[in-house]
Design goal:
It holds the Pfam family HipA_2. With 257 residues, the chain is an alpha+beta fold. The protein folds into 2 domains: 4-100; 106-256, no CATH class. Helices cover 32% and strands 17% of the residues. The protein is built from 7 helices and 8 strands; from the N terminus they run E-E-E-H-E-H-E-E-H-E-E-H-H-H-H. The protein has a 5-stranded mixed β-barrel. A 3-stranded antiparallel β-sheet has the order 6-7-8, with no helix packed on it. Strand 1 and strand 2 (23-27) form a beta hairpin. The longest helix is centred in the last third of the chain and has 17 residues, at 227-243. The chain starts with a strand and ends with a helix.
Length: 257
């Protein structure tokens, strides 16, 4: 998975959703992106989760906007009147993560929309694999754009990485929060999704995805080793979780019952 790198040229508007205060920005390729700030919320670890989980979603051919690395010049803060936004821009100077902006997209409504069982099952399997706690009826993190379902916001996935020592001993744990997944009622093909999606992942592919994480995101007070060692630990964890996936697959099947 090769990520493009673009540079922000204009801060357009904040998206005041949640605590991370993402923003719509324009970049030097004339594209519009939803920027996730390294200096916000959970910091760089949220961007690591966005990149790795998003890369896995794309490898599984799930509908997710293009992910790019976005270079942010702190001088952009000078034109912003809001002190909070000024601080956020300055605290996030350098490489951040952004997703292609989907203009006119609306939030998924589980009452009005009926996703196919196959797609719902594949998304539930993916979210259980990456331990995504944030796809509930309260906060679906799903958009409808051009009559198609799109996955967004994976910063809360891979929650094992918070306070992590690099081990993978809990990689085989079931994901009990899957019972709250907004698409679980439609996911009646989880066994079939498991057979299909598990074949698409492996150590080499996961290694290629994790290799895209910038060194700067793997530093800080909670870093347990050098960047290359941390990347290897992420890959080992994800490979072991894939090998022991029966626990989270069965948990999701049981939750439907």
């Amino acid at each position: 998975m090769d990520l493009r790198t673009v540079s922000a040229t204009r801060y357009v508007t904040p998206l005041r959703e949640g605590g991370s205060l993402p923003a719509v920005v324009e970049a030097d390729d004339d594209g519009m992106y939803v920027l996730k700030f390294r200096g916000a919320g959970q910091g760089a670890k949220a961007l690591v989760a966005e990149l790795i989980a998003g890369g896995i979603a794309r490898a599984l051919q799930l509908p997710i906007p293009e992910i790019v690395l976005l270079d942010l010049d702190p001088d952009l803060a000078r034109t912003e009147p809001d002190p909070e936004i000024q601080h956020l821009i300055r605290a996030s100077a350098g490489l951040n993560l952004a997703l292609d902006y989907l203009p006119g997209a609306v939030n998924f409504d589980p009452v009005a929309e009926q996703p196919s069982a196959a797609l719902a099952s594949r998304i539930v399997w993916f979210d259980a694999y990456v331990s995504n706690v944030d796809r509930t009826p309260r906060n679906t993190n799903l958009l409808i754009w051009h009559r198609k379902l799109w996955l967004i916001d994976h910063g809360a996935a891979l929650y094992f990485q918070h306070g992590w020592d690099g081990g993978s001993g809990n990689a085989g744990n079931p994901f009990k929060l899957i019972k709250d997944h907004v698409l679980l009622p439609w996911a009646d093909g989880l066994a079939e999704a498991d057979e299909e999606l598990s074949r698409r992942l492996g150590r080499e592919l996961l290694g290629d995805i994790v290799a895209q994480v910038p060194d700067a995101w793997l530093a800080g007070a909670d870093a347990f080793a050098d960047p290359s060692t941390q990347r290897a630990a992420y890959v080992d964890y994800l490979v072991k979780r894939l090998e022991q996936r029966q626990a989270f697959v069965q948990e999701a099947i049981d939750a439907r019952r």
